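Curious: explain these tokens?
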Amino acid sequence: MTNEKNTVIEATVDNLGINGEGVARYNGKAVFIKNALPGEKVRAKIIFSKPSFCHAIVLEYLTKSENRVVPDCPLFPKCGGCNIQHLNYSAQLLYKQDLVKSTLLHVGKIDVSVDETVASDKVLRYRNKMSLPVREGKNGVQIGLFASASHRVVPCEDCLLQPVWNKKLIELLKVFIRDNKISCYNEETKKGVLKHFVVREVEGCLYVTLVVTKQLKADAFADMLKSDFSSFVLYQNINTMDNNVILSDSWQVVKKHNEPKLVEGVMANIHPAGFFQVNDYIRRQMYEKVAHVLKNHDTNVVIDAYSGAGILTSFFASFAPLVYGIEINKQAHESATELAKNNGLDNMKPILGDVKDKIGDVLDEHIGKNIALVLDPPRSGCDKSVIEKINDCDGITNLVYISCNPATLARDLSLLTSYEILSVTPYDMFPQTVNVETLVTLRKQNP
């Protein structure tokens, strides 16, 4: 087949792809057109061609979709933080509902009703966490976000997905770098000290992390934070690895200032390395739904797999006789252990380890009891051995699966042959992006 690279075409977009690009047809194959929406007719230039598909960029919009809006962020679509900010919010919610339904059908061969997407209360400024690369560029220090599918930093002074504090923090970091002559990382030479700037807000407290290749004298930055923020914890993370992993296991606390004691109503400390959902409103909606589902059953044991810092696990401990939380991240496990101790939750049992190595022992220990299992795995989904152990266990009467990846969710649900799906609900954890969180409730099928 002829290579169509640099060919200019006219095409009508049929739908959105999994990365938010418009999908059209040309010469019998799919054409993925960035920043094009369904129903739009465009003149586009093919920039990449393969036998079964190609990628193109818009040269001219011949007709525009009624769902197209002017993006609020001047950096869209240059940076990789957002990919559907040009689509109005109602259409974003429908897109995510359709994405979950079509992925379940095409990947998992599961034809099931999918609820409407639960909307976020905010469509901008909703994230409680940011992670910005800090690089030494040709024109000096660059702090921002990576361009899509690239390690090229798009400088950013104010990310509109983050609360307003991100603008001030970026300003302070630039001053700290300048005044203290901090060298920033260069990916080509592998030299420079400051690599990333990671911040998470929990209950009004900013957990700020400087990711560095060697320890810095960071007291001056703590003083700068104190002058502008009433509650913060400043960390250094020493990361000498030459890969895409942002955080290492080497931590140092530089300064704590008015750290809160209560998180979601319980005494807890959230470590920056621990998992915590980025959208507070949607997290609470999901947690309340999961707790409601489990409360309505006579459950003896709850197993919270991939349990993070133990916040959701503590919800279960308020009504279930015995609750386990399995977590592989050491810092998150330590936070969960401290949470259980500080709140007198003797029935909450945090376990450090990989779910595939630990879940079998917990299930075997409670044979014959009514077990409720909550799965909230990373994007890669569950290990096949975990699915096999769940299928083989007769005691799991109720199962809740929380997923941030429709494809691995569909794969895993297709393998959970001992369970029937009761409900599938998408949640808009990530407005302005193609990412979607999905909560699935299941129950054991009768033999």
